[in-house]
Design brief:
234 residues; alpha/beta; Zincin-like; 3 domains; four-stranded mixed beta sheet; 6 helices; 10 strands; 38% helix; globular
Amino acid sequence: MASEYNHKQLGVIRLQRRAGCRRISVSVGRGGRITVTYPWYVLRRTALAFVEQKAEWIMAARKRAQQADQKPHISEGYRTRNHTLRVVYNATKNGWKISEEFVVVSLKSGIEVDSAQGQEVIRTALIETLRDEAQTVVPAMTERLAQQHGLRYNGLTIKNIRSKWGSCSAVNHLNFSLYLMLLPDDLVEMVVLHELCHTVHKNHSAEFHALLDRLCGGREKALSKRLRYYRTTL
């Protein structure tokens, strides 16, 4: 069951009571949307008191989320993992082509790279480039890590996911964001291991984190801290 509360400083907060939830938690999503999740047996006023305790953290997290939603300007020469952006002007139509080393974006006459339309064409081309790169890198990495650690999963899909880096379904099908290709290799491996650990533990319990930390060579906290500085967008 969900409801909303208009906080005098934070604005609208979404309140969710969930069966099976063990503690009160706060998340800040895209655009700075605030969601408070709490167990059925916890009173609404207790959840709101928790919000007051975390107000300073929530405001800082919302500011980071809002900044992350601001799309940066993309210039010629932008590098993905394996490709460099080149721009061709005065083409007959907008489009792009992905080669071994380059993603070549064609802009039709009258459209500049700095324009909103030019940026949208470039961003779309780069997303497809990241998708191609992820299809090459992530399945092979996942299979290698699964075999190395004796874990099993039932299929893998690369998606344009912006809300998270990856997920694991109830039947152990793994989904990964194509934006993983914006991360260094050790963080990609950590995300893959995170989802592989969910094939064993379907929650974020102490047992889950102990397993992930062991598979990360005792570096889970350090890697997770670094991951917070990256975003699932261009």
